[in-house]
Write the structure tokens for this entry.
Amino acid sequence: MIGTGSAISSDFLRGLGAGPVAYGDGLADRVRALAAGGVTAAIGLRGMETMDAARELGVPDNRICTIAAQVDGVPTANGAYAAPGALDEVAGQGAASQLRVPIAVSFPVEQIRRAAERQADGTCPAKSSSTFRARPS
């Protein structure tokens, strides 16, 4: 398995068992160097770069999935096509500590713009979150 990400996420990707490859110009060439047998499938979780590299590497559109864009011929993973019971399964995995959702940094809701900027700027090795507090009664 190969994981693409910012340079700061390399150790995190290795911890998941993936060979890390940095985003940026030449992504397809770097993936090709690690995947001697070729690439059979890809999922893009940020932008279009992974999808474009997968196509360049000859991955058929029906073996590419993205949450970042809607592209003709490429399946989109947005929950609309989730199998019945999928949400319950994921919730159960979370409750049983079988699901990893690393949070690198948390911001109060008043700083939600900063949270989104931090997530987008590539310096955050995992997800950022915003904390919501109930309004006083």
Residues 2-66 form one domain. The longest strand covers residues 103-108. The chain has a mean pLDDT of 82. The two ends are 50 Å apart (CA to CA).
